[in-house]
Design a protein that fits this description.
CATH topology of the largest domain: Cobalt-precorrin-4 Transmethylase, domain 1
GO biological process, one term: dimethylallyl diphosphate biosynthetic process
Radius of gyration: 22 Å
CATH superfamily of the largest domain: 4-hydroxy-3-methylbut-2-enyl diphosphate reductase, catalytic domain
GO molecular function, one term: metal ion binding
Protein name: 4-hydroxy-3-methylbut-2-enyl diphosphate reductase
Strand order of the largest sheet: 12-11-13-3-14
Keywords: 4Fe-4S, Iron, Iron-sulfur, Isoprene biosynthesis, Metal-binding, Oxidoreductase
Structural class: alpha/beta
Number of domains: 3
Largest sheet: 5 strands, parallel
Order of helices and strands: EEEHEHEEHEHEHEHEHHEHEEHE
Shape: flat
Number of helices: 10
EC number: 1.17.7.4
Length: about 325
């Protein structure tokens, strides 16, 4: 058991570092499913199995799958016609599976079911003659995939309240809105409010599109951040949900840093820090959380406390091709 206080080389005594660990954190059901699909595809078909785009936005996970026999590519034309290919959890435009079918390729779709739900909503709205205002981050794979479910010109992307003010639609136009699943809950609420103020008849989705895991992780950060001197978020710089966790803490006035893993931590960050908040984005495995704790224990005695705001029991089924 760790001593309650730790003596430094210069003889000073440091109090323990209290580490508040957010729960829920780390892998969500969609990420678990996507990784399982790649691993089971390698078992079923043998290596290599190609994956279009990073299966999830985490280098540790991607490198681990690469070691098992996955080859990651950006476009379908990089995949041999006789090789199996997996589409990432973020979803792909309709043209991608259509091209795979045209080439008679073996493909498996690892799109998160909650993203697929948004895709289906988009199709139904277009069938009803609605133009879709899509709230999301330009260039993100999920946005590209969702906008690729409908014909060009049938969906308009907005990222901010200011973007809403620039829209040229009339108040009586047949409009609807959908959102990316990994956005800031608070930012999105402001954008939706702006849309409803400008377009009172705009059609909202039946249920919120931001996924349960994104919302839960943000709520957990809110619950612990006020008690922290510093918050660390384990995640990738291209991970939307991880970046939002950093923003949540910073908006509460708490210094927050995004790290890929323990090796990114700098010792001087902890000058004057008595309580640290620690969480992980939905693509970051628990092993990286434990790696960070181990790193901290090299410098300070650590007292762990878990801050739980929700229990997650969601499980998504694997594609039929891998279960038959």
């Amino acid at each position: 058991m760790n001593a309650p206080f730790q003596e430094t080389r210069d003889g000073n005594v440091k109090p323990p570092l209290v580490v508040l660990i957010a729960a829920p954190r780390g892998f969500c059901a969609g990420v678990d499913r996507a990784i399982d699909i790649v691993e089971k595809s390698i078992e079923r078909f043998g290596a290599p199995v190609y994956v279009r785009h990073e299966i999830v936005h985490n280098r540790f996970v991607v490198d681990g799958l690469r070691e098992k026999g996955a080859i990651f590519v950006e476009e379908l034309d990089e995949v041999p016609a006789d090789a199996p290919v997996v589409f990432s959890a973020h979803g792909v435009p309709k043209a991608v599976p259509a091209e795979a079918e045209r080439r008679k390729m073996i493909y498996l779709d690892a799109t998160c079911p909650l993203v697929s739900k948004v895709h289906r909503q988009a199709e139904r709205l277009i069938e009803k003659g609605r133009h879709i205002i899509f709230i999301g981050h330009e260039g993100h794979p999920e946005v590209i995939g969702t906008m690729g479910q409908v014909a060009e010109g049938q969906m308009t992307l907005v990222e901010t309240v200011e973007d809403v003010a620039q829209l040229s639609f009339g108040a009586k136009d047949d409009l609807s809105f959908l959102t990316q699943t990994t956005l800031s809950v608070d930012d999105t609420a402001e954008i939706i409010a702006a849309l409803k103020a400008r377009f009172p008849d705009i059609l909202a989705p039946r249920a919120e599109d931001i996924c349960y895991a994104t919302s839960n992780r943000q709520e957990a950060v809110k619950a612990m951040a006020a008690s922290c001197d510093l918050v660390l978020v384990i995640g990738a710089p291209n991970s939307s949900n991880s970046l939002r966790l950093v923003e949540v803490a910073e908006r509460m006035g708490i210094t927050s840093k995004l790290i890929g893993r323990a090796s990114d931590i700098e010792h001087d960050w902890f000058d004057g820090v008595g309580t640290l908040g620690l969480t992980a984005g939905a693509s970051a495995p628990e092993v990286l959380v434990r790696e960070v704790i181990a790193k901290l224990e090299e410098w300070r005695t650590v007292e762990e406390q878990q801050i739980r705001t929700a229990d997650e029991k969601m499980i998504f089924k694997l594609p039929r091709e891998l279960t038959e």
